[in-house]
Structures are given as C-alpha cells and as structure tokens.
Write a structure and sequence with these properties.
This protein is 49% helix and 9% strand. By secondary structure, the protein is α+β, with helices and mostly antiparallel strands. The chain has one domain (34-502): Orthogonal Bundle (Cytochrome p450). The strands form four sheets. A four-stranded mixed beta sheet has the order 1-2-7-4. Strands 3-11-8 form a three-stranded antiparallel beta sheet. A two-stranded antiparallel ribbon has the order 5-6. Helix 6 runs antiparallel to helix 7, helix 6 (147-168) crosses helix 17 (452-469) and helix 8 runs antiparallel to helix 11. The longest helix has 36 residues, at 293-328.
Length: 504
C-alpha cells in the first residue's frame, strides 16, 4: 500500500513538472521550485517582509536585471533593469492587471469588487480608458493643474502647519499618518467638495487601518497565492482576510459619502467630482459603458477607493521620508531654508512659480524620492493572453510583471555612492536641476500615476512652506531617528517623533 501511495505521489510530481515545464529562455529563478508551492518556501523563515525577502533573492539570482519567482499559482517576473522595465510597461500585451483567473479572484476578494475590472488601478481596456479620461478631465474642470489647485494646496498647508505647531506645544510630533489628512483634504475638496478636521477620529481610524493593510500586504506570502481554493474553505487562516475587512470599512465609508451626494444631487449645479460622476451615469445610455447605471454604481466606489488610497498614502509617505532625511541631514535643511530666504524671503508665501528659482529644494525632493522609494515595486502589469519577449527572455502568458524600483534608483553601477543623501547629484554645473529618467516614483509607461502633477505640487509646497517657517530637529540631538523603513505595498519610515522650532 505504501509503495502504491509513493508511486502515485511520484507520478503526480512528474506530471506537475511536465505541465509546468519552463521554456529554455525563461528568466532565471531561485534554484528550488516545489510543486504547488513554487518558491514560497524561500519566504517562510525570513524576518524581513515578503517584498524585502524577494529583493534579497533578486540580488542573488537575477541576471540581466530579471528574475522569475513563483508563489503557488502566482507567477511573478521582477524587473530591475530600467531599459527592460520601459519595454515591458509600455507594451500593449502587458497592459493588464490580472494574469490568470486565480489572480483575478484574489483581486475581487481584496477590493470587495464584483469582477475585478473596475476603477483606475485595476481597470483594463475600455473601462480603464473611460475612467482615467473622465477623472483627468473632471479634475481639470475643478482646478487640477491650474491656479485654483495651487490655492487649495497652499491654504491647506497653512492650516496644517498651524495645527502641528499648536500640537507640538503639547509634546513631540509623531510622523505616523501625520500628513494623511492634509494631503487627502487637498484632493477631497475636488472629490466631495469638503475637507476633514485634523482631529476627525473616524478618519484617523480609517488611516490607521489603511496603513495596517498596506504594510501587512508585504509581510508574508498569503495562502491565497499558494492554495487559492483554501481561502474559501478556511478564510480566517489567511492574514489577507484582515485586509478584506479593512477594505470593506473603507468602501462603506465612501458609499456613505456617495449616498449623501445622491440626496442633494442637482444636475444643473455640479459641485464636485462625485456630482460630475453621478451626472455622467445619468447621461449614459450605452449599456457597455462603465458609466451605465448597472456598472456605474460599483464603478464609482472603486474609483473613489483608488483615489482615496493613491491620493493620500503615497504622497504622505514621501513627506514622512522628507522629514526623516532633513533631520538626519541638518545641513541640507539649513541650505534649503537659506535658499528660500534669499529667493522669496520669510514673509511671502512660496508659489509653484518659484520652483525654478529653488533648485536645491527641487533637487532635495528628487533625492528624497530616490532614496525613500515610497512604492518600491510599483503597480503590477500582466500578460494574460499571449507570451511576452522580455529582452532575451521569453515569458509565457499568465505572468505578472513587477518593477524593482529600488534596484533602478539605487543601482551602484549608475549612482555613485547611492546610499548617501546627496541633492547635488541632481544639479548640473550651471546650477540647474537635471531630472534623471531613472527617478521613477510615479512609475513609467501607460499606467504611470495620473496624479503625478498634484503629488509634485503638493510635496513642493508643503516642504517650501514648512522649511520657510520652521526648523525640524530630533527629540534627542545625539540620537536621531534611524534611517529604516517598513515595507508593504508602500514603504514608510519606521515611526518616529520630532520637534519644530519657528525660525525668526
């Protein structure tokens, strides 16, 4: 009997290897690929997050800036070559999000969506085109990229600086979720026509949950990747189910905002993005459109989820890294302040038009983005329908492609002493800022972040006004916070506290 069982096991393993045989020119992988598990065993005993552990394996086993890694049914190709990343992320055949039905089922689960093809982040084809175009054109109508947007940012930054200065009188300022409300308010005024109070307990709770979910997503491989069918039988054993519950809380919150808008909706008086969306749904008669009533009710929530996450988390994380690097490098902070003082003075509020005259601040922001690496892998691409030639490697259909932005933005063969915080590396001999194409905090290709303009404007104005008014310093001058991050979907600094001193 035991011999028969052993024979069956051997036959099944051989059948699995035959079915999952890799082509000769497949990207390099870690050496041991197990049936069903793939390479998951490499992540089970690491103390690092899953993303950091895969990054270590990438340095060890990749060739030509490419490595494949299998998490059960989830077949991942990691790209750390800038040229190959451009090639992949600009291709039509990889302009998708879900590589196979298992990945799609996971996306539906995590986003609490109906079919996984909704919104701006996960949408593909006509849905993605319609939603992205509508978002950009509508935001433009409400001031996106115009002087109205700049005014909203500056007004919010002034509110924020007054708030943290007052808070600092009661004790050190904590960086965890410090910038989220201010950053979200800038976007939320266009989305819902209102802003949140900085002490709003419900919003603070949501931000805490969102941060927890984003960080938890990078900790360990989920059983949902390895045995997709088990997640339905034993949902509570999968840590990703906590993320599902968090996402449902966010979705319920956003749905309540939409319902309030429906009660007061007037098609002749469009107040904000949500009103404009409801009007578009009302006008649309094409049943195949993503705005048609049967589709639009779900689509508006998924689009708002995308804006809520992307519009607050990444910019807030970048600003937290900025505070950390400015504390660790006080000479940089002093030099930025002196530049602002010389060009603008201490009375006039900085404008976006001042950016060209503040090259050291601008270069410092680029260096913060390079080293902070807020979204270390970007959003995934996939080739669900056809194989893809990636340089000299062939990737069969059904794979997910992910960038290794850290490898690109901190490559020692390209960046001299990449671990050093050095804004001067972005300034040429004429004193002008040079934006290297390998600085890719907003990704590249067709799926590049559509909110790049707003994010850049927000980061610049927050730092310009902050450093014009204050000096930032650690609680203990002899013990600055460590230059360490916590890595999930996004990468944030380890929580720390600091103090402010108003400049005279």
């Amino acid at each position: 009997m035991l011999e028969l069982i052993a024979l069956v096991v051997v036959v099944l393993i051989l059948a699995w290897y035959v079915k999952n045989r890799l082509p000769a020119n497949y990207p390099p992988t870690p050496p041991t690929r197990l049936p069903l598990f793939g390479h998951s065993h490499y992540l089970l005993f690491t103390r690092n997050s899953g993303i950091e552990a895969i990054d270590e394996l990438f340095h060890k086993y990749s060739k030509d800036g490419v490595m494949a890694f299998h998490l059960g049914s989830f077949k991942l190709v990691i790209i750390g070559s800038f040229d190959l990343l451009k090639e992949c992320f600009k291709a039509e055949d990889t302009n998708f999000r879900q590589a196979n039905k298992e990945n799609l089922a996971l996306a539906i689960l995590l986003r609490r969506s109906k079919n996984g093809n909704e919104g701006i982040i996960e949408g593909v084809g006509r849905i993605w085109t319609e939603q992205r175009r509508f978002m950009l054109s509508t935001f433009k109508d409400f001031g996106f990229g115009k002087s109205d947007m700049e005014r909203m940012i500056k007004d919010e930054v002034v509110f924020f600086l007054d708030y943290i200065e007052k808070s600092n009188q009661s004790g050190p300022i904590k960086t965890i979720n410090m910038f989220n409300t201010a950053v979200l308010n800038i976007l939320w005024q266009m989305i819902a026509g209102e802003r949140f109070d900085y002490d709003d307990k419900d919003l603070k709770n949501i931000f805490e949950l969102v941060t927890e979910a984003i960080l938890a997503a990078g900790i360990k491989p989920s059983i949902a990747f390895i045995f997709p069918w088990l997640r339905d039988i034993f949902p509570n054993i999968d840590p990703l189910y906590k993320n599902v519950q968090i996402m449902q809380n966010v979705k319920d919150f956003l749905d309540s905002v939409v319902q309030e808008h429906r009660k007061t909706f007037d098609p002749y008086h469009i107040r904000d993005f949500i009103d404009a969306y409801l009007l578009e749904m009302e006008k649309t008669t094409d049943v195949d459109s993503s705005f048609c009533k049967t589709n639009g009710d779900e689509m508006i929530l998924q689009t708002l989820i995308d804006l809520f996450f992307a519009g607050s988390e990444t910019t807030s994380s970048t600003l937290s890294w900025a505070v950390l690097y400015l504390i660790i490098n006080p000479e940089v902070q002093t030099k930025i302040h002196e530049e602002i003082k010389t060009v603008i003075g201490l009375e006039r509020t900085p404008d976006l038009a001042d950016r060209a005259d503040l090259p050291y601040l601008d270069a410092s922001i680029l260096e913060i983005q390079r080293l902070g690496d807020t979204v270390p892998n970007g959003l995934m691409h996939a080739n669900p329908f056809v194989g893809f030639q990636l340089g000299k490697y062939y990737v069969p259909q059904g794979h997910t492609f992910q960038g290794d932005f850290s490898e690109i933005m901190q490559d020692p063969e390209y960046w001299p002493k990449p671990e050093e915080f050095k804004p001067e590396r972005h300034i040429n001999d004429e004193g002008e800022v040079v934006i290297d194409q390998r600085i890719i905090p907003f990704s590249i290709g067709k799926r590049k972040c559509p909110g790049e303009t707003l994010a850049k404007s927000t980061i610049f104005l927050v730092l310009a006004l902050l450093l014009q008014r204050f000096e930032i310093f650690p609680i203990d001058p002899n013990n600055p916070p460590p230059n360490e991050g916590i890595c999930g979907i996004t990468r944030i600094p380890k929580p720390f506290s600091f103090n402010l001193k108003r400049r005279s």
